[in-house]
């Protein structure tokens, strides 16, 4: 069964996950104004067609709005947290160049992403035991190959503190 | 210990809440509230388990010590977590980072503005060129129209001249008589055949 629509590869998870533009935390709204006809708007159209799904997938909390045929020339506008508006003119530019430009001015850099990935890995450290929300396991008894939980199967007598103190007391 | 601002209390409280909330519902078993106790339990005196005072004292001491230590440890860890969070958000390092980020942001915005200016200049040039070309084309069209008019006029003049030339050979009332006489004097014989190559045949058909 073939995929539906033009360039259905845009709808595959692999393609979406390949997107490498992650906005900084201040960026809240992205607005794209472009035209449906005209040579100068071609790059913007391609950008909307190919790159916007990737951007939205990687930034689910950023609102992306598209406006068609409202202005003679195409542009992008970003609205940041502190009310600042960033205008990017994309007339005549190629969609890859637009992507690079936006990544440079408002995307998280490689180092920041690396640090965030490390922090995330630290959080999911298998050596940490605690609530399910923060750690992978709550008790060592949940790990395969370890002593099972005494709540489900009683421990052998020799491992209980009660028996050991009795033995120690009887020996003295 | 609670250096946290009011707004951030909720997620922190969730972080430090005791885990595993005691949620045990009392199960009544087979009998409901109004059922009388069994006959075998008649005269039963519920007595708590006997307590050895010496052991109790010792146990109490040990327990207080143990609980003190455990509580202290727990509070220590909670405080560490809170402090880390506070440092992360409003510490001196965080301020440095924020300042640096703001600086970088400004640099990037300046670069973006420069790019926009460049695009603006290009666009102005392009628009100017387009208007010039449009003017040029309009002029060309006007010229062409004029040229066409000129040729048309010339053609018409040619025709007029030709007509004037031919008018000299017309038959008018003055030279009507002369022309009739001339025509009668020179009879023209149209009794000939002509083929596609232009060869004329003047022979009559032999019967």
From TrEMBL, chain A:
SMART domains: L51_S25_CI-B8 (SM00916). Keywords: Mitochondrion, Ribonucleoprotein, Ribosomal protein. InterPro entries: Ribosomal_mL43/mS25/NADH_DH, Ribosomal_mS25/mL61, Thioredoxin-like_sf. Residues 36-109 form the Ribosomal protein/NADH dehydrogenase domain. It is found in: Mitochondrion. SUPFAM superfamilies: Thioredoxin-like. GO terms for molecular function: structural constituent of ribosome. Its main location: mitochondrion. Signal peptide: none annotated. GO terms for cellular component: mitochondrial inner membrane; ribonucleoprotein complex; ribosome. It holds the Pfam family L51_S25_CI-B8. Belongs to the mitochondrion-specific ribosomal protein mS25 family. This is Small ribosomal subunit protein mS25. It comes from Merluccius polli. The lineage of its organism: Eukaryota, Metazoa, Chordata, Craniata, Vertebrata. The gene is MRPS25.
UniProtKB/TrEMBL annotation, chain B:
It comes from the Eukaryota. It is found in: Mitochondrion. Residues 25-45 have a biased composition (Basic and acidic residues). GO terms for cellular component: mitochondrial small ribosomal subunit. It holds the Pfam family MRP-S26. Residues 20-47 are annotated as: Disordered. Keywords: Coiled coil, Mitochondrion, Ribonucleoprotein, Ribosomal protein, Transit peptide. Residues 146-173 form a coiled coil. Its main location: mitochondrion. Belongs to the mitochondrion-specific ribosomal protein mS26 family. PANTHER family: 28S RIBOSOMAL PROTEIN S26, MITOCHONDRIAL (PTHR21035), SMALL RIBOSOMAL SUBUNIT PROTEIN MS26 (PTHR21035:SF2). This is Small ribosomal subunit protein mS26. The gene is Mrps26.
